[in-house]
Every structure is written in C-alpha cells, then in structure tokens.
C-alpha cells in the first residue's frame, strides 16, 4: 500500500490534503494512509491557541477546526503524533490516543496501532532531560513552565515501548534520534544547517530516548520532523546472536509544510491483502499498557523505571503470548478501533470570535471508554482526584488558621503565578531554525519530490553504516547530571498528594455545545494566557 508521510504540519491541513489530491490528479498516486510527524496543531478554538507554546505571530487558527466541526472530512485516514507546537490541552484529553476529528487519529503520549497488517508506532513530544523522569502532572491552566513541559517526553512512555518484542514496521518521533546524523550525508546537513555543527560534533543533537528506542525496536522505517530540513539515513543494526537476522532502518526527516518545501514523501509498504481497511488496536501494545498500569505517575517527583539493579522486585514488564491472547479474547478478536469521536469543546466560529475563551481541563469520553474497557488508569481523572484530595486538606488547614487568627482578612493570593514575563523571555531549551534555508534536499533523491514528480523513498539512501557500540545511548544519558539522588520506582499516594498541592479546579457540567456528561476543570486564573508570547520557537 502507499503511505504518505508529512513533517511539521502546523495546522495547514487544507494545504496538505490539496497536495495529495494534486498528486492523484497528475500522477494517479492515491495514498491509503497519511502519517504526520508532529506539530500537527489540532486547534479547535481560541482557548486552544493559548495553550500553544509559540510566539504570538504563529498563533493562527489555520484549518483544523473545519475538520473538527464536521464542515470538512479528511480524505485519507490520518495518523499523527504530537510535537512541541501543539494545543496541549486538546491532546492531553487523549493520553492513550484517540480521534481528534473524523478520520484523524492521534497516537497519544505513545502508541502502537495497525493498518492493513502494518504495525505503526510513535512517541509524542520532544526530549528534555529535566522533565524526563517526571510523571504527567500538567493540566490546564498551564503556567510558564507547564505550557512547555506538557509536551516533553517522559521515561514511562519509553519504558512501555521498550517492552515490545514483536517487529515494528513504522515508527514516528518528532525530534530525531540522537546519532542518526552519522548515518546519512552529515556534510551536506551541516552545509545547510551550520548551527547544528557543535551539537553534531559533540553528539548531543537529537533525543537520547528516541535513540534508545531505535536500537530496541529496529523498525523498518523511522520518520521524524522538528528540525525543518529533509534528511535521510540508513542504519544497519548489530545482531545479538548469530541466529538473528540482520535488521536495518530507513530513517527520513521531513521538512515543514510550506509552499515550495519538500514536506511530503510517498512510500510503498508491504501489507496484508486480507486485512480490512479499518485502523486497529495492537494486541501486544494493549497488553503492555495493562502490565505497566501500576507504574502510572501524575506527580512532578523524579523517579526511575524499574531496572535489574537490585532495587526492584520486578523490572521486566514485557508480555507473554498468553497475555496477548487474553487481550484478543477480551475483544472477541475484533481489534477495530471504534469510531467514537466526540466534540469536547466549542468550535471556532469566524463570525463570532471569542478572544477571552478560557481553556479547561477536559476528561474525554474516548479515554474514559478506553480505560474502562482495558482496566487502565485515566491519567486526567487521576490528576483531578489528587487535586481534589489536596483541596480538602488545604480547606481544613485554612479553617484551623482562621480559628487561631480571626484577624486574617488579607486577600488570598492566587495559587498561580500571574507574572507573564516568563512567556516573553528566552527559553533555554529552544532550537533556533533558519526558516529561510533548507530548500536543498539532503536525502540525495534522484527526482524532484513535488506534485510534478512523485517522490521515491528508495532513492533516498546512498550508503549503509553499522552503529558501533561506542555510539549507543544508555538511559544514563537521559538524566541531568545535577539531579538529586535517584528515587526508587513507584510513588506513594502520599507523595502524589503532596506534589500536587495547588487548589483544585472545580468540575463544571455540560453546555449547549454538546458537552453534557463531560467532566471539566474550570480555570481560575487566566492572566498567564493574556500575555503576548514573544518566545523564540522551541
């Protein structure tokens, strides 16, 4: 089957689908599936725009809301991962993945699905070592820190993916696996992006977590975006035994979706002709989610995944064939992902702009249904529970203080930092990208991959290199050198409660926009969203 792969979409869905239609008209090429490697920007309304960590000049509604409202429908099944320019409040509703619009599926923080027998996995966000060992604790309203940390990769997602044993056909990450640039035309890359030189030479460009997954999963294809330049590489993996067959990964990074940019690639992938045309759950991945459910953490506390280091009674959470069989039996061998998309927020109306719309923390019915079906923890519901538990203790403490000091009449300060300067200061995590450059194709394609010349993925690779042991990235590389003493796996309930000591956000009922029965958390302070964000892009 034919698979189209796109880089950073930045909400330009109309342009993306129009390009696919142009390919079909001119060349008869009609993809069966579209994959997007992050910065998708599933923005539904003005509140979603405020939850994007981007400069004000990049806060545009674009065209996703038309697909969300039903005005338009994606002409091809679209599967995407999150990047670092996202409406984090929207994607956070679907930590295990789900439909953001009809025919448009988000893989979640990490996920694996199947389409026509092809196994497709992905991990959302970008790597930052200072947040890597935290839990998913963020929720709207975001502050200067959490509006960014919300899209940072966490060790638990990498740990889950490393429990997989079955072969992976396609994998997506937003940022590049660290070291991958050593397996392609590095000289040409540095010619086009000279400011990468220091990080390339010190082997610090890219994600060590993604590199770890690349070595473990060894997928046939690995696609990334983020750096706004097209780059191809071919990695021959080392085998662990003489009996193991050699494996290789074709890596391709895509440019962003702009006119005259090479942002789209078409590849032919072997598939199962007997498989249906529906997107399906992956049984092994569901079994892994069930096996690792006890490791869920919704605190800011730094913690490590279980290792075979004498500190953990269990460190291997990979699943048996029997566990996979149990999942299949639970589903009556029907792995089709239900088309249960639900509107959970008001849709943007160009004729009635709502500049003061407040973002809220929403528990999505898709996630509720998924967790109930497989016995999993709804991360957002757990965050709310911890906040509410903390609220009860705070209220009791305040009552005691009032009894002791009846003169305490000063106005209670907001629990959220109202200083907006943080959103207009320089973010030390940012990577500056030269948007004027990068027009030259670094994948050494022999044809111009434009609507006039459909791209051929097989022509993108010119050499094969084997990754030496010295290039391997251990889990230690994913930690800050100044971190406190490593904590044992598993966080107690008391620690969860203590770490989320902010006042709780109230739940509100349904409204006229079809949100009846959806639990929400109302934001109490919108000052953080009022500032004009002049950050450089991350």
Number of strands: 17
Please estimate the helix content.
10-25%
**Average pLDDT for all residues:** 80
Major sheet strand order: 13-6-7-8-9-11-10-15
Please characterize this protein's 3D structure:
The protein has one domain (1-397): 4-Layer Sandwich (Purple Acid Phosphatase, chain A, domain 2). Helices cover 25% and strands 13% of the residues. It contains 16 helices and 17 strands. It has helices spanning 13-27, 46-50, 64-69, 88-91, 129-132, 146-149, 155-161, 186-192, 197-201, 208-217, 283-291, 321-330, 365-374, 379-404, 493-499, 527-530; strands spanning 2-6, 33-36, 78-80, 98-101, 104-106, 110-115, 118-123, 170-173, 221-224, 231-237, 247-253, 264-268, 279-281, 361-362, 465-466, 507-508, 520-521. The strands form 3 sheets. Strands 13-6-7-8-9-11-10-15 form an 8-stranded mixed beta sheet. The chain has a 6-stranded mixed beta sheet with strand order 4-5-3-2-1-12. The longest helix is centred in the C-terminal third of the chain and has 26 residues, at 379-404. The chain is globular, with a radius of gyration of 23 Å. The protein starts with a strand and ends in an 8-residue tail after the last helix. The model is unreliable at 404-430, 432-452 and 456-537 (pLDDT under 50).
Descriptive terms for the model:
single chain, alpha/beta, Purple Acid Phosphatase, chain A, domain 2, 538 residues, 16 helices, 25% helix
List the helices and strands and how they pair.
Elements: E1 2-6, H1 13-27, E2 33-36, H2 46-50, H3 64-69, E3 78-80, H4 88-91, E4 98-101, E5 104-106, E6 110-115, E7 118-123, H5 129-132, H6 146-149, H7 155-161, E8 170-173, H8 186-192, H9 197-201, H10 208-217, E9 221-224, E10 231-237, E11 247-253, E12 264-268, E13 279-281, H11 283-291, H12 321-330, E14 361-362, H13 365-374, H14 379-404, E15 465-466, H15 493-499, E16 507-508, E17 520-521, H16 527-530
